[in-house]
Amino acid sequence: MRRPQRRGAAKQTRLQDADEIRLLDEWIEAGKPLPGTKPPPPSKSAGAGPAPPAAGEHPEYSACTLFDELPLSQKTKDALRKEGFTEMSEIQRAALPHALCGRDVLGAAKTGSGKTLAFVIPVIEKLYRERWSPEDGVGCIILSPTNDLAGQIFNVMNKVGKLHNFSAGVIVGKRKGIEVEKERVNSLNILVCTPGRLVQHFNETANFNCSQLQMLVLDEADQILDHGFKSQVDAIISQIPKVRQTLLFSATQTKSVKDLARVSLRDPEYISVHEEARTATPDTLEQYAMIVPLEQKLNMLWSFIKRHLNSKTIVFLSSVKQVKFVFEIFKKLRPGIPLKCMHGRMRHVVQQAIVADFNESTSVLFSTDLTSRGLDIKNVDWVVQVDCPESIDNYIHRVGRTARYNKKGKSLMFLCPEEEAMLEKLKATESKIPIHIRKPKAEQLEQISQNIASVLVKFPNLQQLGKRAFVTYLKSVYLQKDKKVFDLSRFSAEQFAAYAASLGLPVTPTIRFISHKKNVSKKDMVDLDKKQMKSSSKPEVIINPQVNSDLTMGDGDDDILYPKKPTADANMDGLDDVLCPKEPATETNTEPEKIIELGKPSKKKKLKINVHRPVGTRVKYDDEGNAIPPLASVAEEVASEPVVRKDKISQRYAEMLREMREHDKEDKLEHKKSLREKKLQKKLKLKRKKQETEVESEEDSSSESDRGQDVARKGKKRYFNSDDEGDDTVKDGDVLAQQEALALKLLSKMHS
Ligand SMILES: Nc1ncnc2c1ncn2[C@@H]1O[C@H](COP(=O)(O)OP(=O)(O)OP(=O)(O)O)[C@@H](O)[C@H]1O
């Protein structure tokens, strides 16, 4: 019962579709723009909505401004409206009318201007009007240079084509799951893929057939037609029909006839909507460049991030190793904002997760050029190019990750003084890049080399990564084609050493590939390594004095790292956001890990006194608590002279001798004085005693007349007192005679 009903509904739909397709074909044919024409500037009434066409009437669509005014299927229009796309961008207005009527298009427009819809819509409409069904196999191939960009295009395709019945698939990543893919690839109508993976299917998948292909699209066409993809693109072209529609899009389009001949374009419409524009980059983008010595780049990057904690930032570095190293190190130092990293060595699912996460959060994404093209991430505030872009095109694509689709954005590029030729190229009139030079003050830089060195001590595997980051950076410069900009021979051995030190490395890694260079001799490098090995395990950063003085030259208004409060003037020149960024995010831990935590644990040590210390080797300390070796305090701090000066030492010895003699003299005088005092005391004592005796004898003589019984009593007593002096016995002679007489009397009585 239900089956006939369903069949009936399907038939009804088919009939409706057929009617719509017939109408669309007529409309497209009747209103198609003349070859080589551009749409006129949008009229003031644009956006008011389409006037309903009268029956049988086919309104002009080559000059329209709304998607609804285009000869598109109702399903596509409905999907576009649901996704919020109503008004067309410039490239869409210019490219869609030509593409819809089946012409080949070579489209160029600034980054973030909506090129994706300019090719996705014609793809869907073409297959719809050709009444393509799943059984018809591959009808369209879209080539993208990277997995992520292919995924992004596939998502747009899904949104715009969600009401249609086509099957579409994204073919990217590694070989994992390829067997399942081989079984399904022939039933997909639209393939979004990287060139390599498509060639793989041509080579390995039985019955893989693209003989019915209607359309070939190359996004980032200049890159896909470049050397890197040459053999793959040639292989693909050889496998697909010559009669097809071809669309090529990029922000930096190839004009090479050779390239175009390879993809056999037929009378292509060259649509470059911003050719006459004042700038090659979005008008809403503010662009800055700073001259930063190689060894100061990390300090500068750290200082920038610390001062823009509320900004979503993409940081471009030139190699995977550098991305990994800077990401890991900064993560350990904790700037106070979430950090992410992205490079080609990650699995595709991980890349997807990172992009999705970065899309939603305010964070810093360290990346290689993997994300420099096409990636459409919401609300990126800053693009920072730590390493010089390899070309102007590369610069345009990198900065194009911000200021997308009329949104504001800013970019900052660090250039080594040796790479200033790139600045000249960018500033050349034909480049059309309005870039401003900013000279940061030296005090704006937070020096983090020592902190990095401490992290490396704690995490030896990071030291290995640091070495590799150092080597791969130099290698990437060495391998660049543009020698006017990239020339390692302009760097001195000292600069390499300072750069290594800025990465926290204790010694400069060996750089074999530049040992043959003229002005960086092998001897220089070896000498430098030896010097560093001898001097200390913590390398010192050598700052080029010329560059350092340049850094201090900036005036206050150039301030990117130390933004000021907005002033009327700042607002006038559009620098307000640079000068006064948003308040830092409130993070629980915004401070970098202390060096102590990163290095060895700090324990309070007990003060030990070395009793076995040889005499004269006592350690002295300066005002900041640094140990001074004996006699070092007399050394003069003149870098060009010997640290310890002999004449100063002998002068100091003479002074010490004079001081000692003076002390000796004083000591002797002191000693003499104390001796004299002791003698005096003794003398005084004797004198006092003598005086007392004299007083006593005077008393005796003065009372001689009254003595009577008292004298006898005193005499008796004094006699037995042996302590009395001799003089007294003489004075007591009478008493003795009396006693002798008494004794004789008693004796005679006894005998009788
Ligand atoms: N007509 C439109 N209306 C509103 N938003 C649009 C429109 N067209 C495109 N956009 C939005 O503009 C953003 C940039 O579009 P898209 O990624 O296609 O730019 P692009 O020109 O391909 O940039 P790139 O050169 O960097 O690859 C996307 O977020 C997209 O959704």
From TrEMBL:
**In this protein, which residues make up the domain named Helicase ATP-binding?**
96-271
| PANTHER family, sorted | RNA HELICASE
Q: Which Pfam families match?
A: CTE_SPB4 (PF13959), DEAD (PF00270), Helicase_C (PF00271)
Q: Which GO terms describe its molecular function?
A: ATP binding; hydrolase activity; RNA binding; RNA helicase activity
- Could you tell me which residues belong to the region Disordered? 26-59, 660-733
The EC number(s) given in the record are 3.6.4.13
Describe the location of the DEAD-box RNA helicase Q domain by residue ranges.
65-93
Regions of biased composition (Acidic residues) lie at: 694-703
The record's keywords, sorted A to Z, are: ATP-binding, Helicase, Hydrolase, Nucleotide-binding, RNA-binding
Write down the top EC class of this protein. hydrolase
Where composition is biased (Basic residues), the residues are 673-690
Give residue ranges for domain Helicase C-terminal.
293-446
Domain statement: The Q motif is unique to and characteristic of the DEAD box family of RNA helicases and controls ATP binding and hydrolysis.
**InterPro entries in the record, alphabetically?**
DEAD/DEAH_box_helicase_dom, Helicase_ATP-bd, Helicase_C-like, P-loop_NTPase, RNA_helicase_DEAD_Q_motif, SPB4-like_CTE
Q: What is this protein called?
A: ATP-dependent RNA helicase
The cross-references to Gene3D superfamilies, in alphabetical order and at most eight, read: P-loop containing nucleotide triphosphate hydrolases
* Physiological role: RNA helicase.
Biased amino acid composition, Basic and acidic residues: 660-672, 704-713
CDD domains assigned? DEADc_DDX10 (cd17941), SF2_C_DEAD (cd18787)
- The organism encoding this protein is Panicum hallii var. hallii
